[in-house]
Amino acid sequence: MTDVRMTDAGVELLERLLERSERNPYRSWSASAAPDYDRLSTAQQMSRFHDQITAAERFGSVEVKWGKRDQGHLIERVVVRDAELLARHLGRPTAPATAQRVRDELLPVAATGEPWVITLLDDMTARWARSEAAYRLTAGQVDAAKEFFSLLASISREEARGLDARTFSKKATNDTKAFDRHASRLAAVLGVRIGQPGAAADVVWTHIGLERFSHPIHLRGPVAVGEADGRLVDGRARPFASIHPEMLQQLSVLERPTTILTIENYASFNRQVREIEDGSLIVYTGGFPAAGVVEFLAKVLTAVAAEVPFLHWGDVDAGGVRIFRYLEENLPRGPRPHLMTKDLAEKSGQPADADPSLASIARSDSALRELADWLAFGSDVRHLEQEALDPERPWADVTAS
């Protein structure tokens, strides 16, 4: 076999042809390309180029089409006859063979996670078999892919929940910086997994329970954190109090709140706790609620009577609906909407495009399914930021239900 492992014009053309063949293995025509003679500035270079291409033809991997008449000494086009033979001629395995080898090496890692992790590996293997990168990983980056699948498998086992990124990364891969190296591709995969393709990374991390470092929970209402020798934090403090998630073991409910109201945005939270005095427990979610907020709400909802109304006030848009649905799916009982209606959006909102990605919520048992349906498929959709409304006592929501 002719040694063609030198990086020059002939090898580059044959490599390019092999890549085109592997990327489209089922097309009805063969990959082909015309030589770039402008790169061959000397007779020696042209002779070597012709020798390499004709050697590949003798091996049975390509067909050479020569020019006619006065161009008969030049190659007009090179056509692939057998991609597997071309790979052998170039001294490397085919992309499908490489992809299968990599899959076999990664499978023991992926298999430690939930079945969807193996499904992802199969999808990536199919792309590697076409000489494509998958989530910016090539078949040649086996060590990086092992890290990636170690992180995914651990996430699928719920092992990220309640941890900061560095601690989780060390636990999953024995490397504190592995998570940072793969953060963008993890967010891309998991965003699709949670039904929110393209979601911001912070939204994804919230869904898997990962926190860079836990943020305090801002609230106002009849709860407290204390020890045997005294009270550390009183939730009735003005204008509001803050409790760190690590203090929740010492949480107690001082008296039955009139309602429990969660609020998505900071400005609306601040106005609510300053302007409305009605004995409610008001909790700021900070957009998608972090793990600490969810844990706090779960403890409170378990401690108070089921008759205490639980409400949520957020934006009337795709993000606000998804936050509401997240609370429904992750708490002992779901909230009812407060100031989140189609009528209010039509009256005070701004024109917006329909968002069909809300279809799954529209078809669910969510308390916002009708609003989600309008936002997903309505002909005159409007979005309403909650800051556009003044705070109100939640009694109307309670008495209307």
Summarize the structure in words:
- The chain has 401 residues and is an alpha+beta fold.
- It has three domains: 9-89, Orthogonal Bundle (Arc Repressor Mutant, subunit A), CATH 1.10.10; 95-208, no CATH class; 217-400, 3-Layer(aba) Sandwich (Dna Topoisomerase Vi A Subunit, Chain: A, domain 2).
- It contains 16 helices and 14 strands.
- The chain has a six-stranded mixed β-sheet, sandwiched between helices. The chain has a three-stranded antiparallel β-sheet with strand order 1-3-2, covered by helices on one side. Strands 6-5-8 form a three-stranded antiparallel β-sheet.
- The radius of gyration is 30 Å and the shape is elongated.
- The termini are far apart.
Secondary structure layout:
Layout: H1 9-23, E1 32-33, H2 43-58, E2 62-66, E3 75-80, H3 83-89, H4 95-110, H5 115-128, H6 142-156, H7 165-173, H8 178-193, H9 201-208, E4 217-220, E5 223-227, E6 230-234, E7 241-243, E8 251-253, E9 260-263, H10 266-275, E10 281-284, H11 291-303, E11 310-313, H12 318-330, E12 336-337, H13 342-348, E13 350-351, H14 359-362, H15 369-377, E14 382-383, H16 395-400
Parallel strand pairs: 9-10, 9-11, 11-12
Antiparallel strand pairs: 1-3, 2-3, 4-7, 4-10, 5-6, 5-8, 13-14
Brief rundown of the structure:
This protein has three domains: 9-89, Arc Repressor Mutant, subunit A; 95-208, no CATH class; 217-400, Dna Topoisomerase Vi A Subunit, Chain: A, domain 2.
